[in-house]
Amino acid sequence: MCRERPHLAARLCLLDTWKSPDVRPNVAGVCGIVGIFAKSAPVRERLGEHLGEMLAQLGERGPDSAGVAVYRDPVPTGEAKLSLYAPAGADWDAVARRLDAALGLERMRVAGERHALLVVRAAPQAARERVEQLASELGELHVLSAGREMEIYKEAGPPARFAESVSLQTLSGSHAVGHTRMATESRVSTDGSHPFTTGLDLCLVHNGSLSNHNRLRERLRGEGISFDTENDSEVAAGYLTWRLREGANLGQALAGCLRDLDGFYTFAVGTPDGFAVLRDPVACKPAVMGETAEWVAIASEYRALAVLPGADEAALWEPEPGRVYSWSRGELAANGGVR
Amino acid sequence: MSLATSASSVGDAEAVDLTTTPLRELNQRLHDAPRDDGAPRAWRVLNPGGRHSIAAGLDAELRVDVEGHAGYYCAGMNQRASVRVHGNCGTGVAENMVSGSVVVHGDASQSAGASARGGLLVIDGRAAARCAISLKGGDVVVRGSVGHMGAFMAQRGRLVVCGDAGEALGDSLYEARLYVRGEVAGLGADCIEKPLREEHRRELAELLARAAIDAANAAEFRRYGSARRLYNFDVDDAGSYG
User: Which of A134, A266, B27, B155 is such that its CA lies 20 to 30 A from the CA of A232?
Assistant: First the structure.
């Protein structure tokens, strides 16, 4: 681990960090992240319910928006899952008819008024591009994710209301990441909410703030990465997308963050196999991990793990700063990249 | 008297379950206790569930046992009370403690004992980053290891680490004294190793005994302190730092 000696001004800022590892005035901390990987059938069955309870615990850390990425029910090759979001609601039957004609619709699940999950008969990337081409016909419609397993739901508003509005408690799944947001770097909006997708079946949640995101965004635009918002976390997601596109594995892409991202962060990245975690070397942002025979989980604070079954008996530890952790189908691999 | 021998029976302690009692109510009862002769002196906090500010702001000779994991700022601003956490603690356990003692029978997250002006914080497990940051006169004893930037800008008091210390130990240190038995990954700016003289061995043995840790190996520790090149130190003022 390489940690340069902080400059004097940075030292004085650090002195304040004990008061809150995040920024005042919110004493409880700013933004919350969670991740859970089910190791047993009962936890898989109730994954959405557990996830909702974890998010509710971190509502004080992030009262203005919430979001989740749930990995569940993988579709076969030749099909794709699309998570769609309509800010003003949509005539989902009409959307379904149009996409059935364009791509072939396998099934659709509407969650609340503004979210829908569609399974279409096309490769994920092609499906995403086709829907984006049809945007003018379909009304304002955002593709939150495309892939074969991941479903993203996110929205501005209190986490508890969000969980209820998308019926999170009804979702089973193998694993998930989630986020509660207190906006600091850009406005409160669903576009600025997490998770941000970083490629097919990949997503990022971020607790912290980046200070070099404007310059990095321009650099990444030059590499052909597009951005929808002025949000700093979207730049981190874009950075990972770019590194992965250039051939890095997830462990290498995350390790690159230590060099190229300036600021505070705890990241949790969702992958088809599990999730990965990275804290910046200064580690102002909190994180705690826990594991039992039934689950492994990460959260900004223990209270989000406390609601999981058997949490009292869980092995608990803080991920070390500047080190990539990954959880992949049953094994925790530290610093060895994602398997 | 060591913390081990001062542990009284808690069999007849007043139990408060935080799944049914609001945290504010618990803390209010603890704050009111000194003004009520009939109030219990020993308390048990059940199902803490990682809640913040449990048993913060106490100012009486109470004994409080927290039966599980606590969140941020547990036993913050403590005066006179003896608080034991039978689990882990989140950020800032015993921050700004003035007197009394706080014992964590588990691990502590970052900024444990931050700015403590007095009292004794004992952590049975490990402590994370910035342990004893800005320490102002309190004592912090960690049985395990501490993360990076331990005792950052610490002004007075003692930090004892029985395990290893992470990078940048004692960065921008003032007059706090640091003792580490294990490896030190790196010293911060203006922090240097200093000789462990007899007076330091005595001080260390006394701290370890108070923390109920075997003091026989006090000679295995190394001492670190400020090189006094980073702040305006005048040797004539040395007495003011205590």
Answer: A134
